[in-house]
Design brief:
- The chain is α/β, with parallel strands linked by helices.
- It has 14 helices and 13 strands.
- A hairpin with a 2-residue loop joins strand 7 and strand 8.
- Helix 5 packs parallel to helix 6, helix 10 packs across helix 11 and helix 11 packs antiparallel against helix 12.
- The longest helix is centred in the middle third of the chain and has 20 residues.
- The N and C termini lie far apart (42 Å).
- 49% of the residues are buried.
- The mean pLDDT is 94.
- It binds nicotinamide-adenine-dinucleotide and zinc ion.
- Zinc ion binds next to helix 11.
């Protein structure tokens, strides 16, 4: 299955290919992108697929670089470390970076590719469900800082995204759940049919039935691609992709990334759906369906009781969508439909309402 992502303004265009066994069949294509290859991954994915990929690239000059897995590694210092490793191997402008791993790898390797020798070709090979369905698409790259999530980074489009669902076989169920959250989000903001597809298939999905998982990945990628194509540089429509993330990012920062991204976004989606209801947009029945879908996937989606609403409010002021220190939220008016707010796709919500939502969902 193939999709093509096109950005008319920057004249860039690339293929997103989805299919079992694809990782092993890229060497001919890759040879057109550079003469040397830097595979960037984390330690866990390195031991699972790093050597397999190196073997599949036999005949090409390729090196494997890895860093400790987990969100805590998504920092400036990991990026520095990787860049130094590349320089030590004598790599330069003729290098193509291959990001092999979850969203932490695709974000940090993408950012490194964007700045290495002022930008070298990048190929995304996502191996987590979250990275396949979301993080590898759209060109957003970056790292976290102690001040907030993803505060440093840039938009840098890859040359190709290669999605091989066979790699999901080694992914723990907890990570499958983290990934499905972003697919549910895509359904909520733009495609009711996808939401309903998932609502009816939580069981086969969690059992990783190939047909169901691949269809959900395909639809998720298609939705994200269609949104980013209309707003490459993030000046409006793309804000809808942040549904659940104003709260989600605050929770990640406050818990020092103890709550994984997908789980934080699940909680964020429930709180921001509640805000969508409080502001008069989302019907109550739809809110209940949203709470229910997380229960069907056994994803806990209530706020940790130990976090105080004021602390969460304070943590949101550094969110990238904030204006003058006031957080903004993506809002939906139905399952599958985002509110436009003059094409900004996010809005301020009165502090008292946010506080009420945070109190009621604890
Ligand atoms: N750039 C974007 O548009 C975008 C969108 C959504 C999320 N993100 C970012 O993505 C990150 C979350 O991504 P994630 O959930 O993939 O986290 P992750 O990269 O930490 O991966 C989760 C875990 O799964 C392991 N793993 C990955 N693939 C595996 C496989 N096939 N088999 C076994 N284990 C495997 C990893 O080693 C890691 O321990 C966050 O930093 C988030 O901000 C970015
Ligand atoms: Zn996300």
């Amino acid at each position: 299955m193939k999709l093509v992502c096109t950005f008319p303004a920057s004249l860039s265009r690339y293929e997103i290919e989805i299919g079992s066994g694809l990782l092993k069949r890229q060497s001919e294509y890759l040879a057109t992108l550079g003469s040397r290859f830097a595979i960037i991954t984390d330690d866990q994915v390195a031991s699972l697929y790093g050597n397999q990929l190196l073997a599949a690239l036999a005949g090409l000059e390729a090196y494997l670089f890895s860093f400790p897995h987990g969100e805590k590694s998504k920092t400036r210092s990991t990026k520095d470390f990787l860049e130094d490793q590349l320089f030590e191997k004598g790599l330069g402008r003729d290098t193509c970076v291959i990001a092999l791993g979850g969203g932490v790898v695709t974000d940090i390797a993408g950012y490194a590719a964007a700045t290495f020798c002022r930008g070298v070709p990048l190929v995304m090979m996502p191996t987590s469900l979250l990275a396949m369905a979301d993080a590898s698409i759209g060109g957003k790259t970056g790292v976290n800082t102690p001040y907030g999530k993803n505060l440093l980074g840039c938009i840098y489009q890859p040359k190709k995204v290669v999605i091989d669902p066979l790699t999901l076989k080694s992914l723990p169920e907890s990570e499958i759940k983290n990934g499905v959250v972003e697919i549910i989000k895509h359904g909520l903001i733009a495609d009711r049919a996808l939401f309903e597809y998932l609502e009816e298939r939580s069981d086969p999905f969690l059992k990783l039935e190939a047909k169901v998982v691949e269809k959900a990945i395909f639809e998720s990628v298609r939705i994200k691609k269609e949104i980013v194509e209309q707003d490459e540089k993030c000046s409006g429509k793309r804000n809808m992709l942040n549904f659940g993330h104003t709260i989600g990012h605050a929770l990640e920062v406050l818990t020092h990334y103890q709550i994984p991204h997908g789980q934080a976004v699940a909680i964020g989606i429930v709180v921001e759906s509640y805000l969508s209801m409080q502001t008069g947009f989302l019907p109550f029945d739809s809110f209940r369906r949203i709470q229910d879908i997380f229960a069907r996937f056994f994803i806990p989606a209530s706020l940790p009781a130990h976090l105080n609403p004021q602390t969460i409010l304070d943590a949101m002021t550094l969110d990238k969508k904030s204006l003058a220190g006031q957080p903004r939220f993506a809002i939906i008016d139905e399952i599958g439909s985002s509110c436009s707010f003059n094409a900004q796709y996010c809005t301020h919500v009165e502090k008292a309402l946010i506080q009420e939502a945070l109190e009621n969902l604890r």
